[in-house]
Amino acid sequence: MSEDTVVVWDEALLAYDMGDHPLDPVRVELTVALAGELGVLGRPGVRLVRPEPADDALLTRVHDPRYLDAVRVAPRDPLFAGFGLGTSDNPVFDGMHESSALVAGATVAAAEAVWRGEARRAVNVAGGLHHAMPARAAGFCVYNDPAVAIARLLDLGAQRIAYVDVDVHHGDGVQAVFWDDPRVLTVSLHETPLALFPGTGFPDETGGPGAQGTAVNVPLPPGVDDAGWLRAFHAVVPSVLRAFRPQLLVTQCGADGHRLDPLADLHLSVDGQRATYLALRALADELCEGRWVATGGGGYALVEVVPRAWTHLLAVATGGPIDPATLTPPGWRALAAARRPGREVPLRMTDDADPAFAPWQPTGEPSSVDRAIAATRKAVFPLLGLDPHDPRD
What we know:
By secondary structure, the chain is an alpha/beta fold.
């Protein structure tokens, strides 16, 4: 296996642009610019790969052909309605099929490079459109690139793929696609569906017939900070991954759990997100011989958060993590200020937060986070042969 890291990138990925909309491609542009100026993309062993659009044969592994037709036709039909398109969440835009297929193709290229041993890790920060359903756009997502990439891995012979979603929203589309497939473990940590879109991701969602235990959901209460998030992550994710024994890890690394994100209510810092990426890499190294495919996802603090969070992700994937005290380069600050005048441009790669946490224990007075952990462990751990009450599991 090559020790290289593939970063799939082309400026054409910025064409996934819904206009005056929270999912603004400037966040991806500023991520790549920041990673470039900090030298992350020029590290030894880092290969930039230009993607090709996913063709219909790939897309229909997940999506209904009639839905593909609708995505193609909608921009040309001012009266088009249906398939979740043309809403405020999922507005129709020119080149919608082509740009969406390119995002999917980029994540497929990342997955193929890792599976075939051409790279140990691969990243597509423009990907992570995890809400798209087989026949419906949802949650700013047209085609579900993580699901398409996982389906491609299964076609290439993979038998056990783990998908871990750390976006603030439930990874509902990926879960739905593989609900009945015991070869795919989907794990999602997210803000409780009682408070946030898409209204799914409860602990008792554990997989369909013949695949019980392959859907794992950790819904967290609003206001959770780094300590609570990391406590929940480490109380659930390592255990279920070790029980499943994946051959490859796919992650969706939405940055919208940050305290500055305008669309959600968790209180993570960039430092806590960086700690999450380090934990994911360690699990890939422990369980999958390092095979890790990472995507972006949500994140709507376009200047203040996303570029720093995903630059940390790129750094963790391509070699050594960036020191949180690192200054953001002046050239990048100027670009960010020019792209989004009036936004506060961060001066350093840290929020000065300490991402320390106390490991979960099944004793004492439970907090709201502990109750969420216990509910998830009770629902899914026995299905995987684990003891929900034993902190060693």
